[in-house]
Design brief:
Pfam families: Metal_resist
Number of helices: 5
CATH class of the largest domain: Mainly Alpha
Organism: Sphingobium fontiphilum
CATH architecture of the largest domain: Up-down Bundle
Number of strands: 0
Protein name: Spy/CpxP family protein refolding chaperone
Distance between the termini: 51 Å
CATH topology of the largest domain: Four Helix Bundle (Hemerythrin (Met), subunit A)
Strand content: under 5%
Order of helices and strands: HHHHH
Length: about 150
């Protein structure tokens, strides 16, 4: 394989395959963005917020981030307890059942916190902005694409 044309052709084919892999991965493998990201993008890009709204939203965001991190840590701890219960019982016994119930409680708390966060953000908006925000929330929750 000392022919320089073959080396160049091989390099070009390798590059094309790499690009095709990236494109396929981005289109078919990358998961959908979380609802939160779509709502935040709408807020900060499309709704033309004033400086006061930006400041209030930043405060809301910081508060929610702290609470969300705590609840996500709780969920991770619940998963560890569930794994330990499964390892101990090797079936759906009382420890597994209790661990599942506990994780469901934490998931419910995270969902409630997220909804409170969404409504807190909405409260900062003018009526025209809130209508667009509501539409985005409904689309996101019903899995309809924009």
């Amino acid at each position: 394989m000392r022919d320089p044309r073959r080396l160049v052709l091989l390099a070009l084919l390798t590059f094309a395959a790499a690009i095709a892999g990236v494109v396929i991965g981005r289109v078919y493998v990358v998961p959908d963005r979380p609802v939160e990201n779509e709502l935040h993008e709408l807020l900060h890009r499309d709704l033309k917020l004033d400086a006061g709204q930006h400041a209030r939203l930043e405060t809301i965001e910081k508060s929610y981030a702290i609470r969300r991190q705590a609840l996500e840590a709780e969920l991770r701890a619940d998963n560890v307890r569930l794994a330990e219960a499964i390892d101990a019982e090797h079936g759906y016994g009382p420890r597994v059942s209790a661990a599942v119930d506990r994780s469901h409680q934490a998931m419910g708390e995270l969902q409630k916190e997220t909804l409170e966060h969404i409504f807190a953000m909405r409260a900062v908006l003018r009526p025209d902005q809130a209508a667009k925000f509501d539409e985005a929330v409904v689309k996101a929750l019903t899995a309809q694409k924009k």
